[in-house]
Design brief:
The protein has two helices and nine strands. The chain has 107 residues and is an alpha/beta fold. The two termini are 16 Å apart.
Length: 107
């Protein structure tokens, strides 16, 4: 299963990469953290690792390491604005439970 992005998320990433002036795409991963066990990690990718998986959607590359892909397969990345808050939203079909603050999840 692949990683996809909404048009709004793809536009946002493209703008950030253009302002940054470099980068292959967006690196998406997970790390152990929070009260539910795992947290998402987002950063710009300037290079590929030997085992990285690359998904391209709407002209944006999303790069995922193999360990994280186990938890992220099928995820859609969105970018939302709610009142004064804005940020990426993860529509991950693998999530079984999330903490109340929305910062961590488990599968």
């Amino acid at each position: 299963m692949s990683i996809t992005m909404t048009a709004v998320a793809a536009d946002h990433v493209r703008k950030f990469l253009a302002n940054r002036g470099k980068g292959l795409g967006l690196r998406l991963g997970v790390r152990t953290s929070g009260c539910s066990g795992m947290a998402y990690v987002l950063e710009f990718a300037d290079e590929l690792g030997a085992d990285d998986q690359v998904f391209e959607d709407q002209g944006v590359k999303v790069i995922v390491d193999p360990k994280s892909l186990l938890y992220l397969a099928g995820t859609e990345l969105d970018y939302t604005k709610e009142g004064l808050n804005e940020g990426f939203k993860f529509n991950n079909p693998n999530v079984k439970d999330a903490c109340g603050c929305g910062e961590s999840f488990n599968v």
